[in-house]
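Pilot study result, target chain (318 residues):
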Amino acid sequence: METLVTIQTKDLVKRFKTRQGDVTAVDGVTLQVRQGETYGLIGPDGAGKTTTTRVILGLLRRTSGESHILGCDSMRDAYAIRERVGYIAQQFSLPPDMTVIENMQFFAQVQGVNPEEQKHRIPELLEFAGLTKFTKRLAGRLSGGMKKKLALACSLVHEPRVVMLDEPTLGVDPVSRREFWNLLGNLRAEKGLTIFVCTPYMDEAERCNWVGLLYRGRLVAHDAPRKIKTMVPGSLLEFTPSHFVPAQKLVTDLEGVLEVQTYGLMLHVFVDDIARRQPEIEAALAAQGIACTGMRQIEARMEEAFISLITRQSQSDS
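Predicted structure:
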């Protein structure tokens, strides 16, 4: 049996009029998200992630192309989409002077959840989000991580089939981010929800079933994370040079070096042949009095793939 497509766009375009002329924020994006998947939309700031999300939801009018959720057209069926989709915006703000339980009741009312359903649904969601002990605490006094979990619980109060999240863990500490993503994983496993999330964090992208890499409004890669990580060139060497800038310049111009990335005080060097190039790099650095510590081959992660794909796309656009 074929898996249903929950979210779909085809040649989606969104342009904005500015004083300097038209700006294309979304440029011919075609993507599919299947039922029960977690789909991560990644890309640098200004890539068009939020605009794409808002057009799919029907919050912005598309310029051309197609966009659907659960078979509903984003432009024609906005009310039906609101009934079936949970959404946390990038700047989502809980009323700070309302308690946790009051926020839940408020969003339930906004979504048309009747009082009888609220009686069992709200306690279940509070327990799911780990907020049962904090029902009387003002939302404004919650930690950043707890605010995100409350926002998620509020977005689920009308039992949506799809949840769309725009950078939901931005500015949250690593432990709270991990807890939030564990909640998302439980949601998908227990309820079969489709989750569409925009994220700037590459470790979060690794948790997704499918990833779309957006750059300057265009989808430059669209595949499973393990497949995207194979799109980088050659094999990857990691090491820490004693003199960072001279080492970076020297290695970049060596034969067989395909790409050089920086990672803190380390260099990540993509080469065509590890066995041949590793001793050549070590010898070239030593000849210039540059020591290198911990040189080893590593597997490319999503972060390296992201930087490599963006760099190549930027060069081809130049």
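One observation from the pilot: The chain has two domains: 5-225, 233-299. A full batch analysis is planned for the follow-on phase.
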